[in-house]
Amino acid sequence: MASPIVTGLLAYGMSGRVFHAPFLSTNPQFKLKAVVERNQKKMAAHYPDIVSYNAVEEILNDAWIELIIVNTPNFTHFDYAKQALTAGKHVLIEKPASGNVAEIKELFDLARSVGKHVFCYQNRRWDSDFLSVKEVIESGRLGKLTEVSFRYDRYKPALNVKPFKETKDTPINGIVYELGPHLIDQAISLFGKPLKFEKLTTIQRELSVVPDYVNFRLTYPAGLVVYLTSGLLIADPQPAFVVHGTIGSYSKYRCDVQEAQLIEGMLPTDDAYGVEPAGMEGKLVTVGIDGEKSIEFMPSLKGEYFKLFYAVYHSIRENALYPITEEHMAWQMELLEA
User: Fold this and answer.
1) Least enclosed by CB within 10 Å: which of 21, 112, 154, 212?
2) Residue 210 predicted with pLDDT over 80
3) Which H or E run contains 337?
């Protein structure tokens, strides 16, 4: 096996602690070397060998580090990714990767010019519930698809305690840029670029100044319509995935357990990692040639965020194609900034 990829984190908040460090520290394809901690030095309590830098400039000057993970606040992603690429590092950028199409194009152009890779962190492609939806769609058991609805429902009426998330002073705030990238990426990964789309945003929470509800309607060939919806005042979450076709329908709640398991300290190497609890199976209704309906409850596949990191490794070491492509990100940004 080729040498592990020496990696640095730009922060150790929830994202670094939950979505990155557990995978980098348990995967021999990576060596988690350093982190930027501007104030409190917390990471060494869990990773005693970590090097803790005080500033982004310091970690970028570390010649051993090959890959920088940009997991800082949304409005910093573009600038920090540019700095890392200019310093000769590969970058893995949390969503949203940038604020618009022009910025994402600039990042990929810069990466090509310096001979490095830009990776966008779209971990929800490896949610157990989404993998199950994908499997059913690709099986052909629904026939020709006619209508698809993906939802990301939450009930959070209170404003975020982090002020920078609730201000119009930074351009990429609100639910459009927080949860929109997940929904759009899942749709694009299945159906590609829509022929056309419509976007509706509104503000529903008291005292909010940033959008907290968004709905996209995507139109595809052969009459397929895809709805993507997310809101922060949904007290009773609906099935997150509803797919209708000419000979069947499939519905499933959003019930991936990976985030909750990681927050509780479970490592991705645990046998129970990514396994949904019983009772959360998807419902498949199909119509036979005799017109009779049959109902099946489909067990989910296992969640597997670790596959994103495998893809990063093979792209850097073997120049394999990373599944979230430059085109995918350009299409996503087009919808987000509309």
Assistant:
1) 112
2) yes
3) helix 326-337
Non-local (6+) Cβ contacts of 119 within 8 A are 90, 91, 92, 93, 311, 312, 315, 322, 324
* 314, amino acid identity: H
Which sign, positive or negative, has the C-alpha torsion 32, 38, 43, 47? positive
What the chain holds in terms of domains, given with CATH numbers, is 5-122+307-321 (3.40.50.720), 128-302 (3.30.360.10)
**Is the Cβ–Cβ distance between 177 and 93 less than 8 Å?**
no
Determine what percent of the chain is predicted with pLDDT higher than 70.
100
Reported as a single tens digit per residue, the pLDDT across 224-257 is 999 999 999 999 999 999 999 999 999 999 999 9
How far is C-alpha 275 from the chain's CA centre? 19
φ and ψ at residue 196, rounded to 5 degrees: -160, 165
**How many helices and strands (H and E) does the chain possess?**
11, 14
Residue-level pLDDT at 268: 97
At residue 162, does pLDDT exceed 70?
A: yes
Q: Nearest to residue 154, comparing CAs of 183, 130, 128, 126?
A: 183
Contact predicate 111/68, CB 8 Å:
no
